[in-house]
Design goal:
By secondary structure, this protein is mainly beta. Helices cover about 10% and strands about 55% of the residues. It has helices at about 105, 140-145; strands spanning about 5-15, 20-25, 30-35, 45-55, 55-65, 75, 80-85, 85-95, 100, 110, 120, 125, 130-140. The chain has a six-stranded antiparallel beta sheet with strand order 3-2-5-13-10-11. Strands 1, 4, 8, 9 and 12 form a five-stranded antiparallel beta sheet that branches. It has a two-stranded antiparallel sheet with strand order 6-7. The chain is elongated and about 55 Å long. It starts with a strand and ends with a helix. The mean pLDDT is about 95.
Length: about 150
Amino acid sequence: MSTEKVHFKIGLSGHYWDKQPEYSILFNEARVIEKTIISTASDEVFYVEFDQEIEEGPCVLKIRLENKDWHDTIQNEDKTEILKDMLLHIDSVEIDEIQLGHLIFAKSQFIGDDAERPTLDKCLDLGWNGTWQLQFESPFYIWLLENI
């Protein structure tokens, strides 16, 4: 089976008022790329970069929000408006210096840790604990041409 080495650059930002979001990035289930707490200011974009050797076939990039609880969302008295919240936003995904643009929206889904929450397609704002995932194929350039 053939392999290819690709470079990832992921732009993330956290929106918070009290506690910073903790996130993790995983590749193909087995490899944890990073697990940490956001250290930038609220709404400031930061980048995580890494190289990955991937085998031909299906691949999945996952980004998880790990530490949100019900104290991190503050609503008004009649619970019709969120006043303060904690979110993890996926701003961009670049593979081999190619910005995936709309594909990170169109080809992704978000699966919450709570089984009662729905799976969301086309979601870039992680508002509860769970996993955003982007499935793609290697060779990457073939998949990209088939999906743009």
